[in-house]
Amino acid sequence: MKKTLCLGLFLFIGVCWAQVDYEFESIPMDYEFVFDMPGRVMLFDGTEGSYDDEEAEIPLPFPFEFYGKQYNSLRVSTNGYLVFPDGESGVSVFNDSLPDAGDPNGIIAVFWDDLLVSDQEQGQTDQISYVIQGEAPNRVLIVDYTSVSFWEADTGLLWAQAKLYEGTNVIELHYGDSITGEGVTATIGLEHPCGCLAVRGPNYRKDNDVVPDEAYRYTPVPKYYIRSEINLNYEDLDGMPGRVMLFDGGGGFADNQETSIDLPFPFELYGVEYNSLRVSTNGYLVFPEDQNGDSYDNDDLPNPENPDGIIALFWDDLVVRFNVQGTEGPGQISYAVKGQTPNRELIIDYRAVEINPGGDPLYEVIFAQVKLYEGSHIIEFQYDDVWTYSFASATIGLEHPCGCIAEPGPNYNNNNDTVPNIGYRYVPYDDLIFEDSFGL
C-alpha cells in the first residue's frame, strides 16, 4: 500500500496512508436507544462497578477503512473516543486539540473528555456498549455512550453514539436530546494516525465548550493537500522587476472590489487547472468564474455558500486606502513573477491593507502574501511580523470549488482571532514523498 511521510517545518516521524480525507457536514440528529436491540454487547456497566480511564478492544463486524487503512478491530475508551490499534492509547484522560502529534493518534473523538462510568444515584446507570444493525453489505456498527458521567461533579451526562457504515466507511456522530455539559470542554472530530491531519468537529480545540445540538457526518473523499508550518519569508516587492499594481490607496479608496489577472503559468487548485484568477481586496483569491470576488463577510471553511474555490490568505473586511498610520506609503495590492521557467513563483502581495472595524480611525493593517509555485502547484501563505490588529476575525485556508472540502489554516472559522506568526505551505498530496516507514 502506498504511504507518505508528513512534511512540516521538520519532517514528522509518522506515516500517512492512502490519499483520503473526509467531507464534514452537519446532519439531523438520530440518536437511537440501544437498550432492547438484539445482539447488544455490554463493554462497561455501572451496575458492576466504576470504570475510569479504561478501554476495551472489540472485533469489527466488517473491515473498516480509516484514512484509507483497513482495520478489523478498534478500542473503545471510557473517555469518549475510539482508537484504532496501531499502538495508540485508549485511556487518555486529557483531551487535546486536533491534530496533535502526541498520543493518542488515529482517533474518532465522539466526545473526548474526562468521563466516568459509574452507578449513579439518579436512577440511570452509566453504560458503554455496541450493537450491529442491518444485513451485509449494509451493516452499521453503533458504539453507544449511555448516560456517561463527567469526572468533574455537576457537569451533566453524556448520551452519544458513533456509527460506522459498512462499505462506504462513513462515520457519523450522534447525540441524545438529554445531553448536558455545563463547563465541559470536550474535543470532537477525527484525527489521522500520523497525528498531523485532522477533520474537525465544532470542538476541534480542547478549550471549546460547544454542546452539540446536531449530528455530524464524515464521508471519505480524495485527499488533496497536506498543510505544514514554515518559517516566515515575506518579501518586499518594491523594486522587483515587472511588479503590477492592482489596487493603490495613493490613487483612491478601494473597498469590496476584485480584479482579474492572467496567470503566468497554468495552476491547479484541487486538481483543476486554471489560467486566470481574481484578487479580492478582502484578502482572498477566487478561481471559478461564477463565484464572488468581493465578499467581505468571511465564513467558516468549508461552507457551501458563494464564494467557493478560494485561497483565503486573510479573508476579512479589508480596505485599501491612503495615509496608513505607522507605514511608509499607502495600502497596496500588487503582484510580481519571480524566477525563470519552469520554476517561477507568482507572488500576490497585500501591503498595509487595513481591517475595517466599522469606523475611523482604521490603522489596523496586514502585510501578507500568497505564493503560487509553477509545476508543483504548491501554495504558501506568508505574513510580515510587524503587523498588529485587534479587530480581525479572519478566515485562513483553502476551499474546494464544491464548497464541501477545505484545508483549514489556524483560522478555519470566522470567529477566531489568531495572529499568524508563522507561514503555511499547502502541498498537493501527489507531490509528497512516498515511503514505506516502520513496516506499516
Please tell me about this protein's structure.
It is a single chain. The protein is mostly beta strands. The chain has two domains: 20-222, no CATH class; 228-431, no CATH class. It is built from no helices and 30 strands. The chain has strands at 20-27, 41-45, 51-52, 55-66, 69-77, 81-83, 107-112, 115-117, 127-133, 140-150, 157-165, 171-175, 187-191, 198-200, 215-222, 225-230, 244-248, 254-255, 258-269, 272-280, 284-286, 310-315, 318-320, 332-338, 345-355, 365-373, 379-383, 395-399, 406-408, 423-428. A hairpin with a 6-residue loop joins strand 10 and strand 11. It starts with 19 loop residues before the first strand and ends in a 12-residue tail after the last strand.
Gross geometry: elongated
- Multimeric organization: single chain
Percent of sequence in beta strands: 35-45%
Distance between the termini: 9 Å
User: How many helices in DSSP terms?
Assistant: 0
* Largest β sheet strand count, sense and barrel closure: 9 strands, antiparallel
